[in-house]
Amino acid sequence: MSGKKRRRPPSSRSSDRAPVRGPERPPRQPFGSALFGGGSSVMPPIGRSLGRGLLAVVGSPVLVGVAVVVPLLAWLVLLALGFEGSPGRLVDVLALPPISTYFDLGTGASLVGVGPAFLVFTAGSIVIRGILFALLTGMIVDRLESGRVGAYGLLRGVRAIPTLLVVQVLSFSLIVAGNIVFPLLGPGIGFLAFVAALVGGLFFLGFAPAAAIRQARGGLESVRRSGRAAMLPGTRHILLCALYFFIALPVVVGLAPGGSQITANPTFAAWIFILAVNVVHLAFMAALAYRWIVVEPNVPEEPVRRRRTQSRAPSARARARR
Q1: Torsion angle of alpha carbons 176, 179, 180, 185, nearest 10°?
Q2: Residue 266 near residue 258 (C-beta atoms within 8 A)
Q3: How many alpha carbons fall within 13 Å on the CB side of residue 74?
Q4: What angle do CA 188, 190, 196 make, to 5 degrees?
Q5: What is the per-residue pLDDT across 171-213, written as a single tens digit (0 to 9) for each?
Q6: In the chain, helix, strand, coil percent, each to 5?
Q7: Residue predicted with more confidence, 78 or 307
Q8: 78-91 per-position pLDDT tens digit
């Protein structure tokens, strides 16, 4: 043997090799982080959305005029039908569904009771709100896109009436089902479940009007796309919906001048409060429309499918058994 030392071949033991790891997966979060997740998002923040929505409404004399005229007409129609109640109900005349649907059902029960006339009143309110909200959404989207409210916005709103009728019917079905099922859970849990159902209805249906205006799709497809936009990661959309519910029911109803006083002649302070609150309702409607305009290119055409676990590579232990 020569005096030269032979070099050892490199060891083939697995301990000398750096472990090969696959790509790290992000931690799973409920509902794709749509409810509780943070981080970056394609959707604008809540503050910016509300600011753009409020500026779009108060900067348009047409939209402010709607917030003034519609509550006044609604009150005159209710008085003509024989309504005897508090004018404080008018704070939610322009509320978003399903809160506006809840307002209509309560008003109908107070006006005609529960019976065939109540069903007629409910059907009429669904049609009227579907038409009104479609036209309002068309004007708001036109205002956000072009900076003004024109006839083109009204024409686009007319095209979206079927979608708004679908939204109204779904909101009505949600409230009726909640009144049947949730009382079985008891007074406390049942009430919380009913509140969650109203917030959830706005969560999934809130973008459908703007989606119908912008994309001219059918009612069910617009509702599906609204749900997909709401479930995008990091949007904190549930917080916006919960904030709106808190403002639209307990806050404005509790702060309304006159409270539950029954009168046919609301005070001047009551009218100012009613009109201001309905401007806020339109501002939230415009905020949802603005968010949809921003996020629209990122909404998937089809629901995202999860990967099957069978497609994963076999583990080291499974390979050793072969």
Answers
A1: 150
A2: yes
A3: 26
A4: 105
A5: 999 998 988 888 888 888 988 998 999 999 999 999 999 999 9
A6: 70, 0, 30
A7: 78
A8: 999 888 888 888 89
Higher pLDDT, 38 or 98: 98
Contacts 24+ apart (CB under 8 A), 10-18: none
Per the structure block, which two tokens stand in for 285? 């409607």
Quick check: 202 and 100 in contact, CB under 8 A?
no
Assigned token pair, 83: 């309504």
End-to-end CA distance of the chain: 42
The full set of domain ranges for the chain reads 36-298
Note the residue count of the chain: 322
- Measured distance CA(118)–CA(122) in Å, rounded: 6
Q: Please count the other Cβ atoms lying within 10 Å of the Cβ belonging to residue 100.
A: 21
Please state at what angle helix 46-58 crosses helix 268-295, rounded to 10 degrees: 120
Residue 301: pLDDT band with limits 50, 70, 90: confident
